[in-house]
Task: structure prediction
Amino acid sequence: MAGPETPELAAAAEAGGADLVEIGFPFSDPLADGPVIRRAAERALEAGMRTEACLENLRSIRERLSVPLVPMTYASLLEAYGWERFAQDARAAGAESLIVADLPVDVRPELERVQLVAPTSTNERIALAAQRTDGWLYLVTVAGTTGARTELSPALSPLVERTRALTDVPLYAGFGISTPEQAAAAAELADGVVVGSAALLAAEEGPAALERFVGQLRAALA
Amino acid sequence: MTAETYGEYGGRYVPETLIPALDELEQGWNEALADETFRAELERLGERYVGRPSPLYETERFAPPGRRIVLKREDLNHTGAHKINNALGQILLASRLGKQRIVAETGAGQHGVATATVCARFGLECVVYMGSEDMRRQHPNVERMRLLGAHVEPVEFGTKTLKEATSEAIRDWIANVESTYYLIGSCVGPAPYPSIVRELQAVIGREARGQMLDAYNRLPDAVVACVGGGSNAIGLFAGFVDDAEVRLVGVEAAGAASLGSGRAAVLHGARSSVLADEDGQVLDAHSISAGLDYPGVGPEHAALRDSGRAEYVTATDEDALGAFHRLAEKEGILPALEPAHALARALDLDAELILVGLSGRGDKDLAEVLGH
Result:
C-alpha cells in the first residue's frame, strides 16, 4: 500500500527476491479486499494518501527499484482522476501496467491493464481477458476476497488448465496465497505467484521482516 | 452480455468473480418476467401475504390550507414498509435459481426484516449484514430479524452503517457465489439489480396512478418521495414518469444528498452520483434516518436528475422530525423518519394536489425520535 515507508519496504521486497511489486492505491470501499488490505487502505487514507500522493510515492519507489511496479486500485480513483490521464500519469511515474480490481474485462476495454480471471469465469471471458491483458493474466485462485487461506485453493488447478488451453500469456496466481508451501504449490501450476495480505502483515514488522518473508517465498519457488 | 446502463450511469464495476453470477441473475430475471406463473405467484403473494394494494389516504389536518396531500400507505404493508415488495419478488427469483442461502445488507433494518421475513416464509438460510451503529439506532428491527430466524452480522468498521454493511454483503456474495443469492435492498448495485428492484417496486406507482384517477379523476400535480438508495421513489415515480405534467420530486437527507451534492463516482458496483471527494474516495453520509444514511444512490435517479425529469431537494433532520410529529399529532400516523423527509418538503411544495410516498411506519424510530 502506498505510503511514506513504502519505498523502503518495496526495496526490501526486491532485495528478498520479488520479481514484481504491486503498489496499492487505497480506495475507501475496496470490494475485492479482505480485512488486511482493507485496513491498510483505511490507514493509508487516514495518512492522506490520495491519488497525487500515490503517484508521487510511485515515483520515489521507481527511483529505488529496478523490477516492474504495478499499481493496484479501484475504478472510482480513475473515474475521478480521468481514466486515460490516470493510466498516462501512472506510467510516467514508473508503472509497468495497472490492476483495477473492480473493472471486469468488458468494462472500459480501451484502458490497457492486467486483466483478472476467476474460477467462475467462462472460457469465453478467459479468452477475451487473455487477448486484452497487458503482459500477464492475474488468476484469482478463489471465489472470495484477498487474504490468507489455510490451504491452496483447489480451484486453481482447473482454472490454470482451462486458461492454458486458451492462451500462451504468462499466468500469475493470487488471492489466498500466504505461505512458502502454498506459493510453491501454486508455482507448480502457474508461472508466477502474487502474495498480498501476508506480505502486508510482514511489512508491518518492518523492512527486514518483509525481506525475510519474501526471501522465504523466493526460496520455496527455487 | 449487455449490462444495462442509465445514460452514463449504472453498469457493472465489480470483481470478475461476480460477472457470471450477474449474467445468471439477468437471464433468470428475464425468464421470470416472461413467465406467467411467476408473475401470478408474485401477484397472489402480494395480495394475500403483503396486503396489496396499499390504500391511498388523503390527510385531513396535516396539509396546510390550499393544498391537498395524499399518502400512498406503504407503511401498512406486512413488515411495515415498501421493502417487502422487493424482498418478495427477489426471493421468488432466488428460489427459481435454486439458491439456498440469502445474504442482504440493511440500514434502517426494514430491508433486513423484509428479507428475514420472506426467508422464513420460503425456508431459506438468511444472513443480514448491519452496521453496528445502525444496530444501536434500530434495535427493535435487530430483534425482529433474530425472531424470524435470521443471523444478523454486525459490521464494525468504517462508518458502521449501510455503506459498510453493503460492502460486506457483497464480499460475502463473492466468497459464496455458487450457493448464495444476494438480495439487494435498493435500486443500487451492479446491473441488473437496479432494474430488478425498480420493476418490483413499480407496483407502488402503478397502483397509485390508478387510485388517483379513481379517487380524483386526475393525476397529482406532484409526486414526492424520500431518496436514500432510492427504491421507494423509483417505484412511485415509475407510475408517473411518462406523464410529463406530473412533477417528480425526490427528497434526500441534507447530510446524505448524493444527488444534490455528489459527483460521478463508482460505489458498490455501479457508476452513479456519490458523495465523494475529488479523488473518488467515498465520504461519510450523515442522517438521523438510518435508511437515508447512504452516500450513493440508484443510477436511474442520477439519470433522471441530469435529464431534468425529476427534481431532487433536501430536508434536514429537524425538518423530518417536525413532519414526523405533525403527522402523528394531526393524523394519528407515525411515519418512519425516511418518508418524514418527503412529508416535510410536501408541506412547502408549490403544488395543489400532492402525492407522497409514505414508505414505512415509524415504530422502529421511536427511540431516535424520543432522544431528540
About this structure: The longest strand of chain A covers residues 69-73. Chain A is about 45% helix and 10% strand.
